[in-house]
Amino acid sequence: MRTGYNARAQQRARAKKGAGAGQKKIIDYPHPKNLNICFKEGVEEGKVNADPTTTELKIYLEMKGFPHKVHIVEPEKGRNLPEWFRKNNWDGILPMAKYDKEQYKIGSAEIMMALEKKFRVPLLCAGGMGASRFRGKTVKNLTLSLLKSVRPYDDSNPDWVDLKSEFRQLDEYLVQCHNKEGDYLKEKRFTLWDIRMVPALYNLISVANLFKPGFEIPDDVPHLRSYMNHAFEDPIFLKFRPTVRQIVTYFEPKLNVRLVLGDDVQ
User: Fold this and answer.
1) How far is the C-alpha of 54 from the C-alpha of 187, rounded, in Å?
2) Are 40 and 54 in contact (CB under 8 A)?
3) Can you name the residues that pair with 105 across neighbouring β-strands?
4) Can you tell me the distance from the alpha carbon of 25 to that of 68, in angstroms, rounded to the nearest whole number?
5) Per-residue pLDDT tens digits for 48-68
6) Which of 154, 174, 208, 251 could form a disulfide with 215 if both were Cys (CB 3.0 to 4.6 A apart)?
């Protein structure tokens, strides 16, 4: 009698039956135990901020299917900080992860790299050849520099020149990976490269003109334009995409400005 097989089959059937009843998700592949994630609190109390690193880590954890507990914290005010956070993160850098008893990782890039190295299933593609040249951090840093600058979006502004160069390199990378315009992400899952790049690009595109009018994607990067049109509407990104208002409130204290938004801004 195949009692072991029957027992496992019954367990899977119970898990499937209870999936919609608010029960814990059961996964049958290696995953971090007792995974805890600290995210920085946004302006709205109890809600995470719209930092691209927050969005990318949320997408990564969803795609991996790892059960985890979220802590929304505010280190500067000492609010909601777990004891393990206080002891192991004196600088208050976020996001932060704790798992497998005493494993601590700080920053979304380090967290994803450590988890991906140890827990390969489900496997996420790293991206195409040359993907390691690009980091969402570059776009993120240039976005902040551009919005802080009093110079317009033209070649008198070195940050704008640098961003255009980054755009052109991204455009070339997309051509190399997808061969022709329009094939981006069709019937494909986000890669680790997409996870890192899309949140940073979305934050830039969403609010650049609100803080400083005149921003446009250059005409000489059509593949990047098409890629963003696809990526911004991908179901996994839509699930965690911050609203424009949330992105604005994320940037306002960094730029020391306050925007008055119309009712048409979500």
Assistant:
1) 25
2) yes
3) 97
4) 10
5) 999 999 999 999 999 999 999
6) 208
- 220: tokens are 């000489």
**Beta strand pairing status for 103-106 and 96-99?**
antiparallel
Q: At which residue do the structure tokens 């976005």 appear? A: 143
Nearest to 49 by CA among 57, 41, 37: 41
Q: Assess contact for 73 and 39: CB atoms under 8 A.
A: yes
| Euclidean distance between CA atoms 34 and 228, whole angstroms | 35
- Cβ 180 vs Cβ 173: under 8 Å: no
Q: Which residues contact 129 (CB under 8 A, 6 or more apart)?
A: 176, 177
Q: Which pTM does this prediction carry?
A: 0.86
Report the phi/psi class of residue 233: left, alpha or beta, with left for phi > 0 and alpha for psi in -120 to 50: alpha
User: Could you report the per-residue pLDDT of 154-195, keeping only the tens digit for each?
Assistant: 999 999 999 999 999 999 888 887 665 555 665 578 889 899
